[in-house]
């Protein structure tokens, strides 16, 4: 994260703090900036070749997204997820995304369901490639939200999913969870194709319950 932030001609119209926020966000979500780590403003200003004003504006943006926690007299820290935080985020995602799945079952066009089917088919081929599976898994979930077409719900989910990526014990890291998650997606897809809104909602809630159980499961300790 040592490149100077110099906007190109094509992006110069954006305020500098937005470039800074984008760069910091990428570092946080990739865990280059680890959860719980202190944001060294002086070092980052030197690395980015900027003053503290755009950096602090960027930190405010990331704080509203939940990625940064501001601590009085101590500065800014990358948000660290507690067990309660993880439970709360999964609970909200379960409510919002199950609601969206029901809307899709009721209202999606045949073409939109075919598109979801193609995304799911790609997911089926990615079970042995964790990074690709993560990417396609999120694309599948977000496409359901896009088709359900409630921008307020979608915005809340986007922010919650950013925060969820801070969790060091992501549910899909657990052995066997990728295959289980895929089977759950398969069941949701079947319910969507059948236009069974109640089943789509219930299966999506179950999917998040199982994800939460995997994300909060403690690794066995050695004797």
UniProtKB/TrEMBL annotation:
> By what name is this protein known?
GntR family transcriptional regulator
Task: Provide the HTH gntR-type domain boundaries.
Answer: 14-81
- PANTHER family per the record? TRANSCRIPTIONAL REGULATOR, GNTR FAMILY, UXU OPERON TRANSCRIPTIONAL REGULATOR
| Recorded superkingdom | Bacteria
Listed SMART domains: FCD, HTH_GNTR
Under Gene Ontology molecular function, one entry of this record is: DNA binding
Entries under Pfam families matching the protein: FCD, GntR
Which UniProt keywords are listed?
Answer: DNA-binding, Transcription, Transcription regulation
């Amino acid at each position: 994260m040592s490149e100077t932030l110099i906007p190109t001609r094509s992006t110069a119209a954006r305020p500098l703090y937005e470039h800074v926020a984008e760069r910091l966000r990428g570092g946080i979500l990739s865990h280059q900036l680890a959860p719980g780590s202190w944001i060294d403003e002086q070092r980052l200003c030197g690395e980015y070749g900027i003053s503290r004003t755009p950096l602090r504006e960027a930190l405010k943006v990331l704080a509203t997204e939940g990625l940064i926690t501001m601590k009085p007299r101590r500065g800014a820290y990358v948000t660290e997820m507690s067990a309660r935080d993880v439970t709360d985020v999964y609970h909200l995602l379960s409510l919002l995304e199950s609601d969206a799945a029901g809307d899709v079952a009721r209202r999606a066009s045949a073409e939109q369901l075919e598109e979801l089917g193609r995304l799911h088919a790609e997911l089926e081929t990615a079970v042995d490639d964790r990074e690709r599976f993560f990417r396609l898994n999120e694309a599948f979930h977000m496409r359901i939200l896009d088709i359900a077409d409630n921008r307020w719900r979608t915005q809340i989910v986007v922010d919650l999913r950013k925060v969820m990526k801070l969790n060091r014990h992501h549910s899909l890291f657990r052995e066997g969870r990728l295959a289980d998650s895929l089977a759950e997606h398969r069941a949701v897809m079947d319910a969507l194709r059948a236009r069974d809104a109640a089943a789509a909602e219930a299966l999506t809630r179950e999917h998040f319950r199982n994800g939460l159980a995997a994300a909060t499961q403690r690794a066995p300790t050695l004797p």
